[in-house]
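Protocol step 4 of 6: record predicted structures for both targets in the notebook before any analysis. Target 1:
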Amino acid sequence: MAANFFSGRRGISLLACGTQIFVSLTVAISECILITLMCFDRYVAICHPLRYPVLVSPRECSRMAAASWAAGALTSLGHTAFTLHFRICSPREIPHFFCEVMAVLRIVCEDTSSYEKAVVVTSIFVLLLPLSFILSSYLLILLAILRMNSPEGRSKALATCSSHLCVVGLYFGPGMFIYMRPGSAKTPRLNQGLFLFGTVLTPLLNPLAYSLRNKEVLSALKKLMRRFQPSS
């Protein structure tokens, strides 16, 4: 994007377009799985603390991370190959700021309705099922928190989980709206806005969401807000 902006050249080869689709999908799918595994980490830590060293050992974490990236890469490879096998119409202008599946389908000359259904099915496995697992886990976590006798422990558990839930909402919301909405390929402007939200705003807000449970960060944030408040 930076190269295109400064050079004025906005052309892209088929290989580079395919690479963009593959990399972006691999990262997105892997992150969905990793966010779900982070929920599993919190579930075990709060509901089964004595089993935590066994279930979430460094070795198991490495395996889960490797499985996430492998699943993301394999799923992405299939969708990249299938998207690029379609015949592209002229003018070959992609209505997006980078090569993305729904944007490429917009300029295809063939009927893509069957493939769009396949995208929805993939989204069910990548987005809807993990989100259902996350919400179910957090329901069990909430019940476990309510049974805690220590107010300090309850507060700490809620702070840990709330930051992760913020990230889940920021990440899964736009993704489901883009890939699970009927006729999504026909609304390029809306998709661009949602992708901008997912690729720029979500990473920007991630450090803030994860650090809000830190007392020092909260204290610094309150001081900053007081500094900008108009004096009476």
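Target 2:
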Amino acid sequence: MLRLLASGCARGLGGGGGARGLAPGGRARPAAGLCDPGGSRSRQASDAPRNQPPSSEFVARSVGICSMMRLPVQASPEGLDAAFIGVPLDIGTSNRPGARFGPRRIREESVLLRPANPSTGALPFQSLMVADLGDVNVNLYNLQDSCRLIREAYQKIVAAGCIPLTLGGDHTITYPILQAMAEKHGPVGLVHVDAHMDTADTALGEKLYHGTPFRRCVDEGLLDCKRVVQIGIRGSSMTLDTYRYSRSQGFLVVLAEDCWMKSLVPLMGKVRQQMGVRPIYISFDIDGLDPAYAPGTGTPEIAGLTPSQLTHPLRQQFPKSAVEA
């Protein structure tokens, strides 16, 4: 799952510039990635060196610590505009576990990511200081305690003015993250890509697991419900009115079947208008994709989104946004 929030726009992470002599240098220009809608500058001086992924021209991909995009690892969010954080938790899942290994595997695969995106023009590393903050030290034997640990970790990140880019982790983790976000920003909007709405109330007598995070968020007033959209929803259910709760709260529920064989660009244009300029959180569950593309998900549902469709939400410029995957 991917999630972002704070004073920025999510449009993919790419970048350039000559930080640390790892890639060709050049004068920084405004990034088309995470940005402040008011046009405020990064906390770094405009000509100060910034972290960026090293070029494989100079550093072999197999070399170095396994961090996200091979960025520097640091313990504190101070001085950062955005940071990657792993939340290796899967004890809230109801089917196949394994998401605890998600942050590590995402980091391993991220060695292939380069700092510029020619398709979008995104060059965020030219204007943003980004690093990897490692993982939240979750308690794999206690879900409630893990949620506390996640919430406290994110409170510190958000208090430092840093945009969290989360690597999950089952969807339970979104609840404590949004607790920390709402504590600073008030109720936030939500762009949620998933096969499931995750608005159940209880299972086996428990009110907290990966099927309930957004129900708990509504209960605590963490979401601006008129600015919540759920995309890619599908699958069988116990009743025919399975969408009733989300829609009764004011959520926009977009079924996967309404996305089949279509570009999501028109939809995301409408969503962008709905979100406005107030803070939002973007959450991607891997099962939003059709399992033909991501068969390792714990809760596969056929007839999902394609990878190209999944890029459309990220290519929107959402002001004041935070991301999780």
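Step 5 preliminary note on target 2. Residues 143-159 form the longest helix (17 residues). The radius of gyration is 19 Å.
Proceed to step 6 after PI sign-off.
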